[in-house]
TrEMBL record, chain A:
Pfam families referenced in this protein's UniProt entry, alphabetically: SoxD
Biological processes, Gene Ontology terms: tetrahydrofolate metabolic process
Top-rank lineage group of the source organism: Bacteria
The protein, known as: Sarcosine oxidase subunit delta
Phylogenetic classification of the source organism: Bacteria, Pseudomonadati, Pseudomonadota, Alphaproteobacteria, Hyphomicrobiales
GO molecular function, one term: sarcosine oxidase activity
UniProtKB/TrEMBL annotation, chain B:
Keyword DNA-binding assigned: no
Database matches in NCBIfam families: soxA (TIGR01372)
Signal peptide: none
Start and end residues of each Aminomethyltransferase C-terminal domain: 891-977
GO MF term (any one): sarcosine oxidase activity
Keywords: Oxidoreductase
InterPro entries: 2Fe-2S-bd_N (IPR042204), FAD/NAD-bd_sf (IPR036188), FAD/NAD-binding_dom (IPR023753), GcvT/YgfZ/DmdA (IPR028896), GcvT/YgfZ_C (IPR029043), GcvT_C (IPR013977), GCVT_N (IPR006222), Sarcosine_oxidase_asu (IPR006277)
Name of the protein described by the UniProt record: Sarcosine oxidase subunit alpha
Domain annotation SoxA A3: ranges: 500-584
Length: 92, 985
């Protein structure tokens, strides 16, 4: 895990300021979606080796949800972007 | 052996004598000594007993790799066990005690283990004490732990203070030897922000024990000049007494600075230790190299030391390790040490060289035995002679100190702490640092450069390259002039055949060659297995001296290269770090924040007993004169609220302001009940679910304007609800126009509850708050008489006529005082969270004791709040799952003990009467219980299978933990005023 995260709003901050929520690639299903879709959304998680995207909440900073793309093996952080921008992008 | 202080020389201040004690014996040393050098100067050779066999052990090294000289420093609460004497700086008044011996260091009963050693091989404990199994924890382990031990941790409170700090730099240089100093100088002159950290109390590293000249002068003087220049540079920070213990992601380093470990009475103004987290753009590892011990019979006798350590004690501390020194070497470094010792006036009698030939210069008068090996040592608690074998002939040579030199291993720990393994180098005959990229580079002896000139150049050049990379205009600092020196060479000699007594690989854990052989025979030949099986490298020194020989021996036995054996895993910490330093200031009451309500002082004035409640410090009850138990106070408070009126501090509730044209829509999607059409000026109870359909939190939602809401959360979930709202607004529904912020700390909020509440409150507000003008669930902004802005809510958590009044936090205490004053004629009392809890229990109102994450709205009796008409809200879809709608789910009920004198306890399980207690027969559980002063007996809330159909049934309430069982009748969970007549009065 990274020691430092470059928050797009606050700059380089220590990881202790963040709370990690988990997989940021999930998209909340429509209310009418199937039970399976909802089950997957709520309960099923991959445990990837390698690249992963996660929501990191900058809880002791700007309180924005950030999307952190990082590698679970090398711990390299590839990108950190604001979660709202990413959510809009994903829905497009 | 007789170790003694040389008549002159060394970097100690002979004008500053320091007295200290070792095992109670008063001794003297000088400023600049380590405890180890001072002990040697006093001829105190025996410093400890070994871990398993209790063998006498002496000082081996002159640095952090020391396996033997572990002592307890200080006494009482200030005692520090397992301190390495070789790095402990001497100070006046230091007290040191040896460890793992009884009754005394000289006569240790545990040494009988040495006689039993044929039975005490590797794995002995695991094999022998396997059976009977239950005795392991109770008998075997405690006894073994007591016999095989290190220093003991004290149980007294640690009086020292600690702190943590961040630091940032362009270049971190780890190690202040020749390479590190030149690197820091080059980078410092170029203008980089440089931090130079070194674990020693004096910067200079090997320069401090160097005999060669630098720039025509003494090497320590050169070090002093460089340090002086570095000190004068504003962009350079020198951290001596600072061990860089870990390398973490993003080039962040952990380091511990021993700010006041070298003083008898620490100043209260400074921490004793400080943990640094250093974020460095680049780092240079200038950590030097470790000389290797040789594995031969009797190599653990006190007086057998690392050759380089004997050199360091002579040159740096002016102490000779003996009157007659022998050197056992497999390479040129042994000769170099012999020459430097001779130059210092230390008598070197013999060099035993394992190699058949060598071209190294031999000091005058020193005998050299080539192709020689040592097979045994003589003496009891100190060395008196060595048995040298050559071509089948043995010879006893008298000596009182023996230096071992088995070649060199670069110190590459930090570079290997993030997953990369060290790489075997045939050229160096050692494991070298892996290539870990540009941010961390290895320099000097740590990089396998062993000459002084080479180290100086390597440091300067690598620092100049880093400066250029970071955009600084840098030239390598001009190199000082050094003497010509050959690269050291050595033959890898993992163990010396023909040992006549135990040949130790790991001194601290008493692992000898036969243990490694046994591990291999029994199938534990993999380096990680062998480590665990033999405990080689598992002691507090983590095998800094021993690991390389263990790897070499395993390789030899398996007939492969050390490259194939590999190393065990390197992890932080490089050397042990105290828990205190890691905790920093986060201890005792400072371990978590103490949150005090804005009405804290008001509570204090009224004699509140406070209780830790989550992060908060809340008033629990307000004892009055004559009340002997908390229950008496709570019962009085409850009855007074029901009969008259009470004031309770509810400021700890989470409070969130929500604004925006989509605020109503946003909240409508967050709560499971309808919020969209909540009229302005009204409050509503709200229930939030998790996406899986279970209750997340409850609270109130008040609409202050079309586009302005004020919501409250429970005290416990204030943070979690805020984060949940952040997520929903930012990630799930970014297109909703809504903004919100937490105002939990901005408002003091108080509940005024009881039949007289309106009369009391009306005295403070102009606005009409009668039942018609301000009915139940009204909510609006108002102003108190005198002009203070306030918010008034007609909500109740007690079932009584009640208001909640919020005022800006700073006015809280004054307003509460006014209310108490206004209420005096109406018999107002202050009530705390305990009474609050009883009041809500009597009314069957719920808290997180009920909402434990497994409860649906219907389970909690709140099914009617679930708005199936709403198109979407958090938790809607999965609430329809079969399991969550099953008829036999546990539902909330009330419980009354059949025998009214009996109590019911929260946490107890419910059973059908007469059924055997078991999980199969489990019918439910008690969530909240307490004594109802209104009813005069205990009551409880519980979850019971299909509970709502079972009112009137009797169940057994079974509490195995407290061995308590009572029969109770199932009833409606609302015990008092089920028609809510009082609420709407």
């Amino acid at each position: 895990m990274a020691s430092l995260i470059t928050c797009p709003h606050c700059g380089v901050r220590p990881k202790e300021e963040f709370a990690i929520r988990g997989d940021a690639s999930l998209i909340r299903p429509a209310p009418s979606a199937s039970d399976e879709a909802w089950h997957d959304y709520v309960y099923v998680r991959a445990n990837p080796r390698g690249r992963t995207v996660e929501h990191w909440h900058h809880i002791a900073g700007c309180r924005r949800f950030l999307v952190v793309e990082r590698d679970t093996v090398t711990h390299e952080v590839y990108s950190v972007v604001d979660g709202t921008a990413a959510a809009r992008e994903a829905r497009r | 052996m007789t170790a003694y202080r040389l008549s002159s020389g060394g970097l100690v201040d002979r004008s500053k004598a320091l007295s200290f004690t070792f095992d109670g014996r008063p001794l003297r040393g000088f400023a600049g000594d380590t405890l180890a050098s001072a002990l040697l100067a006093n001829d105190q050779l025996l410093v400890g007993r070994s871990f398993k066999y209790h063998r006498p052990r002496g000082i081996v090294s002159a640095g952090p790799s020391e396996p033997n000289a572990l002592v307890t420093l200080g006494s009482g609460a200030r005692s520090d066990p397992n301190t390495k004497a070789t790095v402990a700086e001497l100070y006046a008044g230091l007290t040191a005690r040896s460890q793992n011996r009884w009754p005394s260091l000289g006569f240790d009963v545990g040494a009988v283990n040495g006689l039993l050693s044929p039975f005490l091989g590797a794995g002995f404990y695991y094999k022998t004490f396997m059976w009977p199994r239950q005795l392991w924890e109770k008998l075997y382990e405690p006894v073994i732990r007591r016999a095989a031990g290190l220093g003991r941790a004290g149980l007294e409170r640690d009086p020292e203070s600690y702190e943590k700090s961040w630091a940032f730099c362009d270049l971190l240089v780890v190690g202040g030897g020749p390479a590190g100093l030149m690197a820091a100088l080059t980078a410092g002159r170029a203008g980089l922000r440089v931090i130079l950290a070194d674990e020693d109390f004096r910067l200079g590293g090997s320069l401090l024990s160097e005999t060669e000249t630098v720039d025509g002068g003494a090497a320590p003087a050169f070090a002093e000049r460089v340090v002086a220049e570095l000190q004068s540079l504003e962009n350079v920070t020198l951290l001596s007494r600072t061990t860089v213990f870990g390398w973490y992601d993003d080039n962040v380093f952990g380091a511990v600075e021993r700010v006041q470990k070298h003083v008898a009475e620490p100043s209260a103004k400074l921490p004793t230790e400080r943990v640094w987290r250093i974020a460095a753009k680049r780092a240079l590892l200038a950590t030097g190299a470790e000389e290797r011990p040789l594995v031969f019979g009797g190599n653990d006798r006190p007086g057998v030391m690392m050759a380089g350590a004997i050199g360091t004690y002579a040159h740096r501390h002016g102490v000779s390790a003996g009157k007659s020194v022998a050197i056992f070497t497999s390479g040129s470094s042994g000769y170099r040490t012999a020459r430097s010792l001779s130059a210092k006036g230390v008598t070197v009698s013999t060099i035993i060289d394992s190699r058949p030939e060598a071209s190294d210069a031999v000091p005058h008068g020193v005998r050299v035995i080539r192709s020689g090996s040592i097979v045994d040592t003589k003496g009891r608690q100190r060395l008196s002679g060595i048995v040298v074998e050559r071509s089948g002939f043995e010879e006893l040579i008298a000596c009182d100190a023996l230096g071992m030199s088995g070649g060199w291993s670069p110190v590459v720990h930090l570079a290997c702490q993030r997953g990369a393994r060290p790489v075997w180098s045939d050229a160096l005959k050692a494991f070298a640092a892996p290539d870990v990229g540009d941010t961390l580079r290895v320099v000097g002896a740590a990089n396998g450069v062993y000459t002084l000139a080479g180290c100086l150049r390597d440091g300067a050049e690598k620092a100049a390259a880093i400066a250029a990379e970071l955009g600084f205009n840098a030239a390598a600092a001009p190199l000082p002039v050094t003497e010509t020196e050959a690269e050291p060479s050595f033959a890898a000699l993992w163990y010396v055949p023909g040992a006549k007594s135990k040949a130790f690989v790991d001194f601290q854990n008493d692992v000898h060659t036969k243990d490694l052989g046994l591990a291999l025979r029994e199938g534990f030949g993999h380096v990680e297995h062998a480590k665990r099986y033999t405990t080689s490298g598992m002691a507090t020194d983590q095998g800094k001296l021993s690991n390389i020989n263990a790897v070499g021996i395993l390789a030899g036995m398996r007939g492969v290269s050390p490259a194939e054996v590999g190393t065990t895993t390197f992890r932080p910490f490089y050397t042990p770090v105290s828990f205190g330093a890691l905790a920093g200031t986060s201890r005792d009451v400072h371990a978590t924040p103490t949150r005090k309500s804005p009405l804290h002082e008001w509570g204090k004035k009224h004699g509140a007993t406070f209780v830790d409640s989550g992060l908060w410090f809340r008033s629990a009850w307000f004892p009055r004169a004559g009340e002997k138990t908390w229950r008496e106070s709570v019962d009085r408070e409850v009855l007074n609220v029901r009969a008259n009126v009470g004031l309770c501090d509810v400021s700890t509730l989470g409070k969130i302001e929500v604004f925006g044209p989509d605020a109503a829509e946003f909240l409508n999607r967050l709560y499971c009940n309808a919020i969209l059409k909540l009229p302005v000026g009204k409050a509503r109870y709200g229930l939030m679910l998790r996406e899986d359909g279970f209750v997340f939190d409850d609270g109130t939602v008040s609409r202050l304007a079309d586009d302005h809401f004020f919501v409250t959360t429970t005290t416990a979930m204030a943070g979690a609800v805020m984060s949940h709202m952040d997520y929903c607004a930012q990630v799930l529904w970014p297109d909703l126009k809504v903004r919100f912020c937490s105002v939990s700390d901005q408002w003091a909020q108080m509940a005024i509850a009881g039949p007289n509440a309106r009369e009391v409150l009306q005295q403070l507000v102009d606005e009409d708050i009668s039942e018609t003008a301000f009915p139940f669930l009204s909510a609006r902004a108002t102003a108190l008489r005198g002009g203070i802005n306030a918010r008034l809510f007609r909500i109740s958590f007690s079932g009584e006529l009640a208001f909640e009044l919020a005022v800006p936090a700073g006015y809280g205490e004054a307003v509460a005082d006014q209310i108490m004053e206004a209420g005096r004629a109406h018999k107002i009392c202050a009530y705390g969270v305990e009474a609050l809890n009883v009041l809500r229990l009597e009314k069957g109102l719920l808290t997180h004791a009920e909402f434990d994450g497994r409860v649906t709205p219907d389970d909690a009796g709140l099914g009617r709040m679930f708005s199936a008409q709403k198109p979407d809200f958090i938790g809607k879809h999965l609430s329809a799952r079969y399991g969550l709608t099953a008829a036999d789910r546990m539902q909330i009920v009330g419980l009354k003990p059949v025998d009214k004198d009996k109590d019911i306890r929260a946490g107890a399980h419910l059973l059908k009467e007469g059924m055997k207690p078991s999980t199969l027969n489990d019918q439910g559980w008690v969530s909240s219980a307490g004594y109802s002063p209104v009813l005069g007996h205990h009551i409880a809330l519980a979850f019971l299978k299909s509970g709502r159909e079972r009112y009137g049934e009797k169940v057994a309430v079974w509490d195995k933990l407290r061995d308590h069982e009572v029969i109770a009748e199932v009833c409606d969970p609302v015990f008092v005023d089920p028609e809510n007549k009082k609420l709407k009065a």
